Amino acid sequence: MLKTIISKLMGKSNDKIENSNIICGCFNLTEQDLKNAVSNGAKTFEEVQQITKVSTGCGKCKGNNEKLVNNLILKKKIDENQVVCGCYNVKVQDMINAIKNGSRSFEEIQKVTKAGTGCGGCIESNKALVGQLLAKY
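Now predict its structure.
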């Protein structure tokens, strides 16, 4: 309710207020700063740290900000239908299709798409992606 009152007084939407909240006090960073880093190509939390310096001061905000950045990266992969396994050219939509056809775990999706069965470098990131996709579809 307070955000709504403030937004009316300032003429801002709730989204703009949310995005302008300071999430790293040491460097005065907002969620929008992290979103910008991801939209400009950062693919890992460490890359976002290099760009923004988030969580590199006192470190108290690292856990929450690492989770936020990882969710932003996953959202970008989904929104852009990115290739998530280069060995077999598996895209996010391939995983979504596997889910829509009955796959209910990473292992089942892996059998259908072959994601992660080549070099294995994408397994961990794809497990997190599949978790989000299963919750969504």
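The chain has a mean pLDDT of 90.
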